[in-house]
Amino acid sequence: MPATTLMIILLGLTVVGYFLGRRRAYLVAGKSGQVQALHSRPAYYGTLTAMWCGIPSLLLYIFWLVAEDTILIQLVVAQLPDHIRKLPDVELKLILNNVRNLVSGNIVSGEIDAAQQAAANHYRDLKTISQGALAVAATSLAVGSTLMIRSRISSTLRARNIVEEVVKYFLIACSTLAIFTTVGIVLSVLYEAIRFFQIIPITEFLFGLEWSPQMAIRSDQVGSSGAFGAIPVFMGTILISTIAMFVAVPIGLMSAIYLSEYASRRLRAVVKPLIEILAGIPTVVYGFFAALTVAPLIRETGTLMGLDVSSESALAAGLVMGIMIIPFVSSLSDDFINAVPRSLRDGAYSLGATQSETIKQVILPAALPGIIGGVLLAVSRAIGETMIVVMAAGLSANLTVNPLKTVTTVTVQIVTLLVGDQEFDSPKTLAAFALGLLLFFVTLILNIIALYVVRKYREQYE
User: Fold this and answer.
1) Which end of the chain has fewer CB atoms at under 10 Å, N or C?
2) What share of the chain is helix, strand, coil (3-state, %, to 5)?
3) Which domain holds residue 313?
4) Cα four-point dihedral sign 280, 285, 291, 294
5) Are the beta carbons of 247 and 294 closer than 8 angstroms?
6) Which residues make Cβ contacts (< 8 Å) with residue 21, sequence separation at least 6?
C-alpha cells in the first residue's frame, strides 16, 4: 500500500475515532442523567480517542520508515552471492546503490549483472511485503487503540487533563526541537570554522586586509594568492546595508506615520497593500532591476558629473535593497504605532499638544520598541541578501567606503565558496563556515545592543 494511501486511511480513522469518543461520552452522560455529570466536555473525550488512534499508529509509521531500508538491505545482502558479499565496503555500497536505483527506476552506474538484477527483484518483493505489513500493523494498532480507550470512557475519566497534558508536551517538544536545531546549526558551523582556523590563523582572518581565497593546486600556479582577510568582505556588507537602511528607514517610518496618523481609511486600505507588495517581489527581479536600470543610471549620471563610477557599485545594490526592505520597516512600524493606546493620544491633545507634537513626544516613544524591532528585521534582511549584490555590486572584495566602487558581501562569498569543484577540506571551502560564524556573532552582538537600548528606553518611558 502506498504511503500516501496509508496516511489518508490513518487520518480517516483518527477522525472516526473523534466522533466515536464524543458519541460514547454522550451515551455515558445519558446514563448518568446529563452532560454536566461528565468530568470533561464531550469534545475532550473525542479528542482523547482521536489521540489514542492517531499518535501510536503515527509513531509506528515513522519508526517503520526509519528502520525499513536498513533491514531490507541486510536481508538483500544476506541473499547475495559470496563473491559479492566479500567485496570491500566501498564496492559493496556501490552495488547496493545500483540495486536501489534499479528498484526506483533511476540511472545506474556500470553494467548490471544477473546477481544485481536478482537482488533488485528481491528488494522489490521485500518492499511490497513491508508496505503491506506496515498497513496491517498501523491500521490494527489504530483500531485497537480506539476501541480500548472508547471502552474506558466514563464520567470520572479526566479527559481534559490528559488532552491538555499531551498538548503541553507536544508544545515543549516543538520548542525543544527549534532550540536544538539552532544549537546544531551553530555547532556544525563552529566545527568547520575551527578546522579552517587550524589552517589559517584567526588573526589573519579577522584583521587581514586582502580577500582572495584562491588556493594554489600546483606550486607553479599563477593567480592563487590564498589571502583570507575578512575585513574587505565585512566592509562591503556594512557599506551596502548602511545604504539600504538610509533608504528604507526614513521612507518606511515616514510612510508608517502618514498611514497611521494622517491618511484616511480609504487611502490606507489602498496604499498599505501596495507597499507590502514590494516584499513579495522575488529578489532576482530586484537584481535584474538593479543591474539593468539602476546601475547604468548611476554610471551615466556619475560620468556626466565627472565621477569614476564602476559598472557594478555598492550604491546601486544598496538603493535597490533599500527599496526591497521598505515594507519590513513600514508595515511593522505602522502596526506598532496603531497599537499605541488611544488614551495616550487623547491625553496629549487635552494638554494642548498639536498632532505633530503628539506624534514626536508620545506616539513614537511608546512605539519605539516595535519600531526598533522592525528596523532590526530589515537589517537582518539586508545583511542576508545575496542575489541583488551578485547582480548589482559584483564579486570583487575591495576594501573601500566609496559607494561608487565594486564590493561584495559575506553571503555572496559564502555562496561563491561553496559552489564549484573544489575539495571540501580545502581552506577555500572552509572559509565559508568561518565567514558564517563571524556573521552569526556580529548579528548576535547587534541584537544584544538593540535589546539593551530598547529596555533602557522602555524603563525611562515607563
Assistant:
1) C
2) 75, 0, 20
3) 230-417
4) negative
5) no
6) 45, 46, 47, 48, 49, 50, 146, 149, 150, 153
133-142, 223-232, 318-327, 385-394: range with lowest mean pLDDT: 223-232
305 secondary structure, DSSP code:
T
Query: Same structural domain for residues 354 and 269?
Result: yes
Domain assignment present for residue 345? The answer is yes
112 shares its domain with 246:
no
The enclosing domain of 287 has a CATH number of 1.10.3720.10
For residues 53 and 143, membership in a common domain is answered with yes
CA distances from 167 to 14, 158, 160, 194 (A): 16, 15, 10, 40
Residue for cell digits 487623547? 346
Q: Which helix (H) or strand (E) holds 212?
A: strand 211-212
Assigned domain for 241 exists: yes
Give residue for cell 524591532. 373
**Cα 52 from Cα 411, distance rounded (Å):** 47
Rounded mean pLDDT, 313-325: 88
- Residue 442, domain member (yes or no): no
Q: How many other C-beta atoms can be found within 10 angstroms of the C-beta atom of residue 27? A: 11
